[in-house]
Amino acid sequence: MTYTTSWLLLIVAGFLEIAFAVGLKCANGLDRPWILAGTLVALASSLYLLTMALRVLPVGTAYAVWTGIGAAGTAIVGMYWLGDGVSLWRLFWVGLILLSVNGLR
Predict the structure, then answer these.
(1) Could you give the CA distance from residue 99 to residue 95 in angstroms, rounded to a whole number?
(2) Phi/psi-derived region of residue 9, left when phi > 0, alpha when psi is between -120 and 50, beta in every other case
(3) Gap between the Cα atoms of 72 and 105, Å rounded
(4) pLDDT, tens digit only, all 105 positions of the chain
(5) Where in the chain does DSSP place strands (E)?
């Protein structure tokens, strides 16, 4: 596996991490088991792709990027689609997470 492919897998894993976190919210506990099932598939897929990327990438960098994409992406989705509060400070901190993730690359 190439270095570039590992980064691509890691980015996809990060987006699946967003799907997992948002899916937990949308599943509403166990009220929507079909959404919960999809959420678990997203989690398993995210972990699998992270594991594949770790074959090439350093663990500290890969894990930080994976969690950074998940955290920032989940915050953005929450603000845009789920009615979470939006403020300049929240956007600033999300931007700082993304900037930090980029710095680790």
Answers:
(1) 6
(2) alpha
(3) 16
(4) 899 999 999 999 999 999 999 999 999 988 999 999 999 999 999 999 999 999 999 999 999 999 999 999 999 999 999 999 999 999 999 999 999 988 877
(5) none
**pLDDT (tens digit per residue) in 67-78:** 999 999 999 999
| Contacts of residue 5, Cβ cutoff 8 Å, sequence gap at least 6 | 56
Domain extents in the chain: 3-104
Helix, strand, coil: what percent of the chain each, to 5? Answer: 80, 0, 20
Q: Taking a C-beta distance cutoff of 8 angstroms, is the pair 100, 68 a contact?
A: yes
Ramachandran angles phi, psi of 27, nearest 5°: -70, -20
Report CA 65 to chain centroid distance, whole Å: 9
